[in-house]
Amino acid sequence: MNKMQADKSNGARWQNYTLAEYVVLRNGVPLGDGRSLRNMLQRSFGAASFAGFWQYWNPIWGYGLGRYVYAPLRRVLHPAVAFILTFAISGALHDLATMAVSWSPAFLFTPWFTLMGMGAVLGRIAGMDLGKRPFWLRVAVNLAYLVVCLLPALALRKAIL
Fold first, then answer.
1. Residue 42: inside a domain, yes or no?
2. Which pLDDT tens digit goes with each residue over 36-47?
């Protein structure tokens, strides 16, 4: 039995994994494997819920956010609040990177990611489970979730900037 099989059987959490092990857990292939992008897209868009989408999307970034943002926040805040704040911080980092490259204000990713975090939490509270639905429907719902969260973020950005 390998480490991941043993961890799954005894309930160990992702914090026990190295980055390389975490990427294999989420993508099914090691870092740098040519199938990584395909696997990430299939697994995230085919996820049974919005929260599930984020378990597979960009596992390298997710690993860092989980370890260095979510875990510390989770020690002092309710998990749902820590989750939404982690998304907001991720959005702020994306906005900062955009501003560093464009040398102009950017306020898109922070509200967009915050809304996506809220959507994932609400989906979890509602017990969202599309696991038995066809793959194409899971893709459509997850894509719609991204777009529905993007539209108010775009409107807010336009109003502010």
1. yes
2. 999 999 999 999
